[in-house]
Amino acid sequence: MNAVIYYSDTGQCRRIAEYLAGKSGYALTDIHEAQSGYGTVILVFPVHCQNIPAAVKTFLSKLKAGTLAAVAVYGKMSFGNVLYEIQRRYRHSIAAAAYVPSKHAYLAENGFEDFEKLDCITEKLKNPVAVKIPRSRKNIFANFLPSFRSRIGVKLYADAACDKCGACSKVCKRGAIENGIPNKKCIRCLKCVEACPRNALHFSTRLAMRMYLNKRKKEDLIIYI
């Protein structure tokens, strides 16, 4: 069985995964529902603070697949070194990989729309040959308490419309929020904000985060085939 497996908090990665599933004919599967054994896998996931998300690490550590394509979606700031790290750490045979610029979770901007530029990935998988992914630049502080940095940079809060329905708790796979109140497990992915049926959850960026987000954006689409 072949599959496009995605990890998506705000919907950006899911949209890309849906396109690739349509082009490849592979089954579309949420990473939390994925199995461990596949023929070919296209993995679509977001870059979190220049790092591989924990759910993706867990999946890759258990994955048994003949061929892997890895698509890392970043918020136009920095993608770190995640594809190289996946190739080195998990030893999967990677036939194609990409860094895809898209909407940053904390900014009101357009997401990635040039889906046809990813067609070369599905074409490469018809005749998969391992590709070598070069090391890229990663901030030396990227591994230093990334979840804590997100929490101090972004305030997450509920307004008076919150009726404690529990919808936010249900969509959070980390157990990081309950009845609109986040805890220390929260990485500020904003999946709960997207899922709130009453639009009662909000976020605001603090000064350090605003300064970071004001930096010049990257628009680089980098594909390794």
Summarize the structure.
By secondary structure, the protein is an alpha/beta fold. The chain contains 8 helices and 10 strands.
Would you identify the regions where 5 or more consecutive residues have pLDDT less than 50? none
Provide the gyration radius in Å.
18 Å
Strand content: 15-25%
Biggest sheet descriptor: 6 strands, mixed
Report the order of strands and helices: EHEEHEHEHHEHEEHEHE
> What fraction, in percent, of the residue positions are helical?
25-40%
Q: How many angstroms separate the termini?
A: 22 Å
Give me the number of helical elements: 8
Helix and strand content put the structural class at: alpha/beta
Q: Looking across the biggest beta sheet, what order are the strands in?
A: 2-1-3-4-5-10
What would the average pLDDT be, to the nearest integer?
93
Which overall shape is indicated by the principal axes computed on the Cα atoms?
Answer: globular
Total DSSP E strands? 10
Set out the fold topology.
Elements: E1 3-6, H1 12-24, E2 27-30, E3 37-46, H2 54-62, E4 64-74, H3 82-90, E5 94-101, H4 119-124, H5 146-153, E6 154-158, H6 167-171, E7 177-178, E8 181-182, H7 191-195, E9 201-205, H8 207-213, E10 222-224
Parallel strand pairs: 1-2, 1-3, 3-4, 4-5
Antiparallel strand pairs: 5-10, 6-9, 7-8
Description of the molecule:
The chain is of the alpha/beta class and 225 residues long. Helices cover 28% and strands 24% of the residues. The chain has helices spanning 12-24, 54-62, 82-90, 119-124, 146-153, 167-171, 191-195, 207-213; strands spanning 3-6, 27-30, 37-46, 64-74, 94-101, 154-158, 177-178, 181-182, 201-205, 222-224. It has a six-stranded mixed beta sheet. The longest helix has 13 residues, at 12-24. The two termini are 22 Å apart. The mean pLDDT is 93.
